[in-house]
Design a protein that fits this description.
Elements (H helix, E strand, L loop, with lengths): L8 E2 L5 E2 L3 E2 L5 E2 L6 E3 L5 E3 L3 E2 L5 E2 L6 E3 L5 E3 L3 E2 L5 E2 L7 H5 L1
Antiparallel strand pairs: 1-2, 3-4, 5-6, 7-8, 9-10, 11-12
Length: 100
């Protein structure tokens, strides 16, 4: 015979949740996607280079910037701008300073 479980419950004796449902009541839905996986509680766990609570911000570090905890770019060295794609020139020294 077949046992039918209430709601999103499943497994032996209806003691667990069916696939992609979590929590004691099996009422929390989470399905892994390209940019995140689901932990044992059904919370999003961002894959590498994805940020934000929904893992929808992509940032991959380069030689011009690193990524902050929220996925925003943090320019390195002399790189500036929203995309860290503008390099500020080196400060110039006067000839008198070089000779000394």
């Amino acid at each position: 015979y077949k046992v039918y479980c209430d709601g999103n419950k499943g497994g032996i004796g209806c003691g667990g949740c069916i696939q992609n449902y979590y929590s004691t009541n099996c009422d929390k839905f989470c399905k892994s996607y390209d940019n995140f996986t689901c932990d044992t509680n059904g919370n999003h766990t961002c894959k590498p280079n994805y940020y934000n609570t929904t893992c929808n911000v992509y940032c991959a570090p380069t030689s011009q910037y690193t990524c902050s905890n929220n996925g925003s770019r943090e320019c390195l060295g002399r790189w500036t701008g929203d995309d860290c794609d503008t390099q500020t020139p080196c400060p110039s020294a006067s000839l008198a300073e070089i000779v000394q």
